[in-house]
From TrEMBL:
It comes from the Eukaryota. It is found in: Membrane. The chain crosses the membrane at residues 269-291, 353-374, 395-416, 451-467, 473-493, 505-525, 560-578, 599-616, 628-646, 658-678, 684-708. GO terms for cellular component: Golgi membrane. Pfam families: Cas1_AcylT (PF07779), NXPE4_C (PF24536). This is CAS1 domain-containing protein 1. GO terms for molecular function: N-acetylneuraminate 9-O-acetyltransferase activity. Belongs to the PC-esterase family. CASD1 subfamily. Keywords: Glycoprotein, Membrane, Transferase, Transmembrane, Transmembrane helix. Residues 253-733 form the Cas1p 10 TM acyl transferase domain.
Amino acid sequence: FKGGDTCEYLLSSGRFLGEKVWQPHSCMMHKYKNSEAKNCLVDKHVVFIGDSRIRQLFYSFIKLINPQVKEEGNKHGNIPFEDKSASIKVDFLWYPEVNGSMRQRIKSWTESSAAKPHIIVAGAATWSIKIHNGSNEALTQYKINITSIAPLLEKLAKTSDVYWVLQDPVYEDMLSESRKMITNEKIDAYNEAAVRILNSSSRNSKAKVKVFSVSKLIAQETIMKSTDGLHLPESSRDTNAMILMNVYCNKIMKPIDGSCCQPQPPLTLIQKLAFCFFTLSIIGYLIICLIHRNNYQKSKSCTDLESGEEKKPAISTPVSTLEILLHSFCKLGLIMTYFYLCDRANLFMKENKYYTHSSFFIPIVYILVLGVFYTENTKETKVLNREQTDEWKGWMQLVILIYHISGASTFLPVYMHIRVLVAAYLFQTGYGHFSYFWIKGDFGVYRVCQVLFRLNFLVVVLCIVMDRPYQFYYFVPLVTVWFMIIYATLAIWPQIVQKKANGNCLWHFGLLLKLICLLTCIYFLSYSQGAFEKIFSFWPLSKCFELNGNVYEWWFRWKLDRYVVFHGMLFAFVYLALQKRQMISEGKGDPLFSNRVSNVLLFISIVSFLAYSIWASSCKNKTECNELHPSVSVVQILAFVLIRNIPGYVRSMYSSFFAWFGKISLELFICQYHIWLAADTKGILVLIPGYPMFNVLVSTFIFVCVAHEISQITNDLAQIVVPKDNSTLLKRLLCVAGFFSGLHLFSAMQDQSRH
């Protein structure tokens, strides 16, 4: 893989994804909003100097600052623009030819003691071709003039960003008679002269005039849409302006989805300590392996001198806790190195997403066929049994992965259906944890620590290695908080469990009262942003749930699926009550209810499922649909559960393909952020440039293997970090508290050094 400066790639190469989305070679472009453009260019002076094509670029550029600007004024004269709120000055200077007048203007900036423009964008040639009827003498004079200007531009490049815009090709068939002499052959000759002469005296210097040649590539694809054959269509000019903004602003604003022109972030103190820890773990494990190998070699060839028979080696001793720890951290260290190289080091390419219906729906059909192909009989036939819930998690996770990599969030009907899948995960959280506490009555610390460790281990490691806040991986905090809410609801006095409730039916009403209190609290917090933010703004909660200095994002995420966990708990309560009273039939092949009731419920479920899909597909406004989503998402979830479980033959089967992915669904969801997608899910990781399908196959294979391995590591470490013995568990909890205290201390030191 040929490495290089992503700024050079941004200015010189790329391709169109579809008709309007420009993809630079090897990096991602950020789409700047007006507020971001103003923040970047505050107190800056930008100058565009050249002909009518540069004037068009000037207008597209200032529209990024103020979209209300209209293309008015003298077309063959200077045009000033100023944004007083941000102290931004952008000027267009009419110099249609590279001649003495342009040289004098540029020279005045080099000699003046006044502040020089921060950005200079220059270019001209077509007027010289037109006025001199495309003569060779005009080209010779152009070379002489640009040779005299080049040293001045290079001198300015030491303190300012200087760009020379190469001439775009023309659409010769559409040119008017007065412009027929402007041919692409002539334009190429002028461009070649400009590239050869510019920077000729400063090839090894950092202060160079940046040649803006990408505009030529864009024009080759779009010039046929021009109104006069000479000037680019508006969409192409806007793309050029956005490229300019990315070249200058990415290193200042550091947008997550703008990897072009961004330097590699420096290692933080915590990242350095993590690197040392993983390195020591790898060294420690290698030492243990060498010791074992040496001992094995000694015992391997023990020969009985009397009989001449080879003795069998001694039975291997059990693996020690230290060895399991070092082995797990050794693997984890190698995996985290891969994470860092993929999404923090500028080693691999990153590309923007581009949505098409085929890129989303074809893979969906493909995995559906695979899932059906791997159909097997279940071990048990209860409603939402373990195999069935793993299958459910698996196919939902695969759909969500395809949704993310295809950029389908831009298509509202797909977005609304994916929101239901996320809600279904939370529904399972409510159902699963309620069922466990209700049936087992186990409210011990061991159970709580075990669940919290399995949910949060990978995210905590990624927060350290990738230098990201906990709330960045929003789904894990969401599931963690809901687990604690379920636990608190059922553990707080009076503790009502199935065993107690069977003795007295009044306890069922007591539990329903608890659930009503929970629903009331959820309703209150969802409509009281202030109260919610006060709760999560207290230290140390604020350290976990703040993103960009506030907890608004956390409130928004929590609010989006606020009722579905409650729905999952309520469903579990009703189902377990019916099961206890033997009002449902869960035998193999038997319908859940009597034939008549089953058929009616099945019909209602199918209608409800389709009705929700029709409503979601007709959504026009994302904000309005998100407001309704918390209340109506349960309709499709319950409909699916009933469709999947009422017919006995459907309940008795499951897809082992989907179930396999379901067992590592959490790891898949988190790992995709950095080693399948890129730039924290904003783009796509490119391991193999130029072969999109092959790249997806390779990166997907590695991604799934890594997720599976992390799942195994988490399970191994959970046995050690969360032991069943209470006294040992207490010691481990004190160690964990010490670890997080140290992490907080180092984080505070990091923040202080940054400020």
